[in-house]
Amino acid sequence: MAIDSSSSSTSLAPGFRFHPTDEELVRYYLRRKICGKPFRFDAISEIDIYKAEAWDLPGKSRLKTRDLEWYFFSMLDKKYGNGSKTNRATGRGYWKTTGKDRAVYHRSQIVGMKKTLVYHIGRAPRGERTNWVMHEYRLIDEELAKAGIVQDSFSVFWSKMEH
């Protein structure tokens, strides 16, 4: 019988926290996911991030902690089949990008990009802003690019609710 690891949850021992840096999210977790390598500690759920409303994300997290932060892997949904624009609409709202993309560095080399999104209820452009924030990370890896490995097949997301 196969076990669906995407639905299993993990509780960390008291005192332990899962707080990877931006660099760790990109260089370890996202790179391993894209390359199909296993994790020592499987802390990040794989979901279709834009099929879930912001308030449903905590229940989809593999980690069950008191922290108001959740991590996910997701494939990006392109708005148009051959385009680069991402469809960030959910059933009841949408994730709106804010600010400019920021580089994630390892030493002085760019290894990824980070985009910040805020959840809005309703439809653009009249949606109502909420306190739900998400950061989308994508990998930039010259070695994988030279090997012909597609790097935008997955992104890693860090979601939180701000007070």
What does this structure look like?
GO terms for molecular function: DNA binding. Keywords: DNA-binding, Nucleus, Transcription, Transcription regulation. One of its GO terms (cellular component) is nucleus. InterPro entries: NAC-dom (IPR003441), NAC_dom_sf (IPR036093). There is one protein chain. This protein has 163 residues and is of the alpha+beta class. The chain has one domain: NAC domain (Metal Binding Protein, Guanine Nucleotide Exchange Factor, Chain A, Beta Complex). 14% of the residues lie in helices and 33% in strands. It has three helices and six strands; from the N terminus they run αβαββββαβ. The chain has a six-stranded mixed sheet. The chain is globular, with a radius of gyration of 16 Å. The N and C termini lie far apart (43 Å).
- Biggest sheet strand order reads 1-2-6-5-4-3
Coarse shape: globular
Give the CA-CA distance, first to last residue.
43 Å
Biggest β-sheet description: 6 strands, mixed
The strand count comes to 6
Q: Helices and strands: which structural class?
A: alpha+beta
Average pLDDT number: 86
Helix percentage range: 10-25%
The amount of beta strand, in percent, is 25-35%
What count of domains describes the coordinates? 1
- Which stretches of 5+ consecutive residues score pLDDT under 50? 1-7
Task: Give me the number of helical elements.
Answer: 3
Q: What is the architecture at the second tier of CATH?
A: Beta Complex
Rounded to the nearest angstrom, the radius of gyration is: 16 Å
Q: What is the succession of H and E elements?
A: HEHEEEEHE
CATH topology, which one?
Metal Binding Protein, Guanine Nucleotide Exchange Factor, Chain A
Keywords: DNA-binding, Nucleus, Transcription, Transcription regulation
Organism: Ilex paraguariensis (yerba mate)
InterPro entries: NAC-dom (IPR003441), NAC_dom_sf (IPR036093)
GO molecular function: DNA binding
